[in-house]
Design a protein that fits this description.
Elements: E1 3-6, E2 13-15, E3 27-31, E4 36-40, E5 53-55, E6 60-62, E7 77-79, E8 88-89, E9 102-104, E10 110-112, E11 126-128, E12 133-134, E13 137-139, E14 150-152, E15 159-161
């Protein structure tokens, strides 16, 4: 049995309960966007191995995003945009979620460099990192995914450098 958690069009608010996620769950979609959720993204989210889509954008979530995210080997779409996370460098787990097709972390107080490895994921189609404080250039390297269609890194002084394979 497949489970979807589409909790759109409601007025959820407050913190995500500590015991919400477990390894026994068979949850595919977690859609908690545009709520008034605060607190942190719990490490237990990484135990739900079946998650394919996580959209928790446009909330008031804070803290650091747990590295347990890299346990989600089925994750295809991950949108954390427009939250209140602690200012941080692009987390290491960004370069570990290899099955992702869309990664969106816009307006989320990221700074530093984006790992080149991210752009080589074979299924990657979109990367949205706009309105952060990424510094220097975003170097995509020479092994850019053939599926990659869009990279948004506008604001914060960032520019994009395309790898040696000539794709633009």
């Amino acid at each position: 049995m497949k489970h979807f958690s589409h909790l759109n069009k409601n007025r959820l608010s407050g913190q995500i309960p500590e015991n919400l996620f477990s390894s026994n769950m068979r949850l595919l979609h977690l859609l908690l966007d545009r709520k008034k959720l605060d607190g942190m993204i719990l490490a237990s989210i990484g135990t739900v191995q079946t998650l394919e889509i996580i959209c928790i954008d446009k909330n008031f979530l804070g803290g650091l995003v747990s590295s347990s995210i890299n346990n989600l080997t089925s994750l295809h779409v991950f949108d954390l945009s427009n939250n209140s996370f602690y200012p941080s460098e692009a987390p290491i787990w960004i370069s570990e979620i290899e099955n992702v097709t869309t990664l969106a972390i816009e307006s989320s107080r990221l700074h530093g460099q984006v790992p080149q490895k991210l752009f080589s994921f074979p299924r990657l189609q979109q990367v949205k990192l706009s309105n952060n404080s990424l510094n220097g250039t975003v170097d995509m390297g020479s092994s850019i995914s053939e599926q990659l269609q869009a990279v948004a890194t506008i604001a914060g002084g960032s520019t994009m450098v395309v790898g040696n394979n000539g794709r633009r």
